[in-house]
Amino acid sequence: MSIQISDTAAQKIRTLMAKQGISEGGLRVGVKGGGCSGLSYTFAWEKVARFGDEVFEGPEGATLFVDKKSLLFLNGTVLDYDSSLISRGFVFNNPNAKTTCGCGSSFGA
C-alpha cells in the first residue's frame, strides 16, 4: 500500500510548513464521511506520526501521515498540487474514487 507525493505537492508542503514555523513532521491526510460524494479528504499538520500510522516520504523530505482506515481509500493515490488561478490547492489523483464532486474535495468509493 502506498501514496505518492508529486514534486509540486512536496514543494508546497515544505513551503507551508516553513511559513507556519514547523520544522519537523508533515501533513496528515485522511478520509472521513461527508461531502457531496460521500467521503471527504482531510488535512492537518502533525509533528509526529500517531500510533498505527503509515508514513510516506516524498521529494524534498515531504512527509505524509495516514491512518490505516484512510489508507484503504487512498492506496495508490498521487497527491499533487494545482497552482492554477482557478483551482489552487492539493489534488488527490485517487484510483479508488468511483465518483468525485466538481470541486474534487469529496469522492465515492
What does this 3D model show about the protein?
The protein has helices at 7-19, 68-74, and strands at 4-5, 26-33, 39-46, 54-57, 63-66, 78-82, 89-93, 99-100, 106-108. The chain is α+β, with helices and mostly antiparallel strands and 109 residues long. The mean pLDDT is 86.
Our measurement of the CA-to-CA distance between the termini, rounded to an integer number of angstroms, reads: 17 Å
Number of strands: 9
Strand order in the largest sheet: 4-5-2-3-9-8
The helix fraction, in percent, is 10-25%
CATH architecture: Sandwich
According to CATH, the homologous superfamily is HesB-like domain
The proportion of strand residues reads 35-45%
Mean pLDDT: 86
Supply Rg. 13 Å
Summarize the structure.
18% of the residues lie in helices and 38% in strands. It has 109 residues and is α+β, with helices and mostly antiparallel strands.
Question: What are the main properties of this structure?
Answer:
109 residues, alpha+beta, Hypothetical Protein Aq_1857, Chain: A, 6-stranded mixed beta sheet, 2 helices, 38% strand, globular
SSE order and pairing:
Elements: E1 4-5, H1 7-19, E2 26-33, E3 39-46, E4 54-57, E5 63-66, H2 68-74, E6 78-82, E7 89-93, E8 99-100, E9 106-108
Parallel strand pairs: 1-6, 2-5
Antiparallel strand pairs: 2-3, 3-9, 4-5, 6-7, 8-9
